[in-house]
Amino acid sequence: MSVFDRGESDGARVTVEWEGGLSWIAHPEEKGQRSSHAISTTDGVWLLDPLDAPNVEERIAPLGDVAGVAVLSCWHARDAGLFARRHDVPVYVPEWMSRVDSLIDAPVEQYTFSPAAEFRVLPCRPFPNWEEVFWYHEPSGTLIASDSLGTVESFRVGDERLGLEAFRRLQPPTELAGLDPERILVGHGPGITDHPGSALREALDDARWTFPVAFVENGAESVRSILAAMRS
After folding, report:
1. Is residue 7 part of a domain?
2. 5-56: per-residue pLDDT in tens?
3. Is 1 a member of any domain?
């Protein structure tokens, strides 16, 4: 089983759905479980880190017209350009985020704070070549964490429901401390809808002391995932 399936999707699996949005995994069988998201706002629908699949458009269409596409990690260009061209909207990227512009064949709009009024955007640059933004949709209490947090096996240790990527445990995202979201959507794996606030607090509070076991159990897989992302 490959970390990331670069072929055409046979159909996405919707993993989280609520009145104002949904998350899907375009290649359910891949180890990396790359997740994408659509969130409805008063300005229209925002597509975050999207990957295409034959059934995606029919699932997001009831949410409304697409207002924009956003890339939340320097490693998540994915199919952002394809969706932007399809819906005739720009791809939004933080002005300081590298790499993404060169991988997107569509108009790119750079922003400083937030391109959408309903989202709070929290920058995160813990290491060289790790550039990420957390988006928090305040009306629905939805936190989107693209790379630091995940629910796939390679992010979790012990009985964790939500895990930090192994190396991020050395520098946990304190930007998220104090948030009590209604749901947490991640870039790798299904989202968390059952007591997400406690899952987030546990992930942040336990980060540093769980690093040794996470490094032993998941360090090699984390490196493989990083190398696979670099090849995109």
Report:
1. no
2. 678 898 999 999 999 999 999 999 999 899 999 999 999 999 999 999 999 9
3. no
